[in-house]
Amino acid sequence: MRNVFIPVMSLIVLLSISLFNNVSASENHNIVVEDGYARESIPGTTISSAYMTIKNTSASDIRLVSATSTVSDRIELHQHTMVDGLMRMRQRDNVDILANDSTVFQPSGFHLMIFNLKQPLKAKENIIITLHFDNESSVDVSYTVKGLKQKKHHHH
Questions:
Q1: Dihedral of the alpha carbons of 42, 47, 145, 30, in degrees to the nearest 10
Q2: In angstroms, rounded to a whole number, what is the distance separating the alpha carbons of residues 76 and 124?
Q3: Residue 130, CB half-sphere, CA atoms under 13 Å: how many?
Q4: Whole-prediction pTM value?
């Protein structure tokens, strides 16, 4: 009887550890990033910007605290706001993503500013930016680089 008890206890401990690891590993599944794109860099400059929608499907608020990438050593969180009739851009320390809600990063709103690009971003390329959150989770996001010239709509 004693010989059976030890393997059963070992199995219970292993299953418990496995279950705990799956719970913490699945924290990232509560963060969904959609519609990610970056802007092609303007010739002669070393900056760009990136946009997306971040969905938080968890019951707890989370906070985006930073972003990193191999394309640049400096990516900042920014927000455009209207102040006294003027559009102003300010760096943010973080951006809240409320529980069961989403936050849109778009031109004239929240966005990622990418400084000191190691090489120019070209249309149709893909870059990876890792988003880091205050719950110590992170998400690698693929951003398609969109060209500077937008297609014009033809009216018939």
A1: -160
A2: 23
A3: 10
A4: 0.77
> Which element (helix H / strand E) includes 6?
helix 2-25
Q: What CA–CA distance (Å, rounded) separates 68 from 19?
A: 30
Measured on CA atoms in the order 20, 27, 62, 59, is the torsion positive or negative? negative
Per-residue pLDDT for the chain (156 aa), expressed as one digit of tens each? 555 544 444 444 433 333 333 232 334 679 999 999 999 999 999 999 999 999 999 999 999 999 999 999 999 999 998 888 898 999 999 999 999 999 999 999 999 999 999 999 999 999 999 999 999 999 999 999 999 876 554 455
Q: Which CATH class is domain 30-146?
A: mainly beta
Residue 101 and residue 29: Cα distance in Å, rounded? 14
End-to-end CA distance of the chain: 85
Q: Domain limits of the chain?
A: 30-146
d(CA 73, CA 129): 11
Distance CA 141, CA 103 (A): 15
